[in-house]
Design goal:
9-stranded mixed beta sheet, alpha/beta, EC 2.7.1.49, 8 helices, UDP-N-acetylmuramoyl-L-alanine:D-glutamate ligase, single chain, thiamine biosynthesis
Length: 270
C-alpha cells in the first residue's frame, strides 16, 4: 500500500560540502531507516574552511515545494534547519501550522555553537513569535537557550528554569543541549522537559575533536526520524542522543579543517 514506509521531511538549506544542513539531515534519515524528503530554503557554497557564498530560495518556490509534497506523500514528522529571514520563517509557519507534515521538530538555528548570532533581530523575533508556538519539539543549543529564555545559564537549576521558559513560548517538548565549548569538560549533559511535565537528563562523554560539523542538525533529524517511526518523544530523545554521540566519537577524515561527523558509526538497530 502507498505510503506505508516511514517518511520524514527536512526544511533546510543545502550545504555543498555535505557536512551539515539538508545533507546531514537526509543522511541521518537514511541511516535510521526513514525515507527523507526536503523543502529547500537556501544553498551555500562551502567547504571545511568556511562558507564563501549563499543564496536563498524565493518564498513562492518554497511554498510550492510544500504543496507538491502534500499532494502525494504521508510525511510523519518534519524538522527545520536554518531559516534566513522573516519572510521565509512566515512561509514555513504558514505551511506547517495545520500539521499535515506531522509533528514539527524546531532546530532554532539562531546562534552558533561558539556564540555568534546568525539571524538578524527581526528574523529572530519572527521565529520566536510565529514558529516556536508550532513546535512539538525544540532543540536549542546552550547559547540559543540563553537567548530565547532571556537569561544566563550557569547551573542545573538555571537549565531547568530556561527549559520551562521555552515551554512558555509555546514549544511542547524541550531538549536543551548542554554547553560543549569547554575543552576541559568530561561530559555533555542535555536536559529534556516533556509536555506532561516529565523531565530527565541525558549525558554522553565529551569528545575533543574538530569533526563536529552538522552535530545539531544530526541530533534534531535523528529525533525526527525516530518520531516518524513511531517512537515516543522521550525515547526519540534518548536514541538521538546516543546516535549523535557515536557519530562524533568515531570521526572520519573528510576535509582539511572543520570536518563532518560520522553518520555511519552508530550501531543502533531497530
Amino acid at each position: 500500500m502507498a505510503n506505508e514506509f516511514p517518511q520524514a521531511l527536512t526544511i533546510a538549506g543545502s550545504d555543498s560540502d555535505g557536512s551539515a544542513g539538508m545533507e546531514a539531515d537526509l543522511t541521518t534519515f537514511f541511516t535510521l531507516g526513514v525515507h527523507g524528503m526536503c523543502v529547500l530554503t537556501a544553498a551555500v557554497a562551502g567547504n571545511s574552511y568556511g562558507i564563501d557564498a549563499s543564496q536563498s530560495m524565493p518564498t513562492a518556490f518554497v511554498a510550492q515545494q510544500f504543496k507538491t509534497l502534500a499532494a502525494d506523500f504521508h510525511i510523519r514528522a518534519s524538522k527545520t534547519g536554518m531559516l534566513a529571514d522573516s519572510e521565509l520563517i512566515r512561509t514555513v509557519a504558514a505551511n506547517v501550522k495545520d500539521g499535515q507534515f506531522g509533528p514539527l521538530v524546531l532546530d532554532p538555528v539562531i546562534i552558533t555553537k561558539h556564540g555568534a548570532m546568525l539571524l538578524e533581530e527581526s528574523a529572530y523575533e519572527t521565529l520566536r513569535e510565529e514558529l516556536i508556538p508550532l513546535a512539538t519539539v525544540i532543540t536549542p543549543n546552550f547559547f540559543e537557550a540563553q537567548k530565547l529564555a532571556e537569561m544566563e545559564i550557569k547551573t542545573d537549576d538555571d537549565t531547568v528554569t530556561a527549559a520551562h521558559k521555552l515551554q512558555d513560548l509555546g514549544a511542547k517538548n524541550v531538549l536543551l543541549k548542554g554547553a560543549h565549548h569547554d575543552g576541559d569538560q568530561k561530559e555533555v549533559r542535555d536536559y529534556a522537559l516533556l509536555e506532561d511535565g516529565t523531565s530527565f537528563w541525558l549525558s554522553a562523554p565529551y569528545v575533543a575533536t574538530d569533526r563536529i560539523n552538522g552535530t545539531g542538525d544530526t541530533l534534531s533529524s535523528a529525533i525526527t526520524a525516530e518520531m516518524a517511526k513511531g517512537e515516543s518523544i522521550a525515547d526519540a530523545f534518548r536514541l538521538a542522543k546516543q546516535y549523535t554521540y557515536e557519530a562524533i566519537a568515531d570521526p572520519i577524515a573528510v576535509g582539511h579543517k572543520f570536518g563532518p561527523i560520522n553518520h555511519w558509526a552508530p550501531k543502533i538497530q531497530h
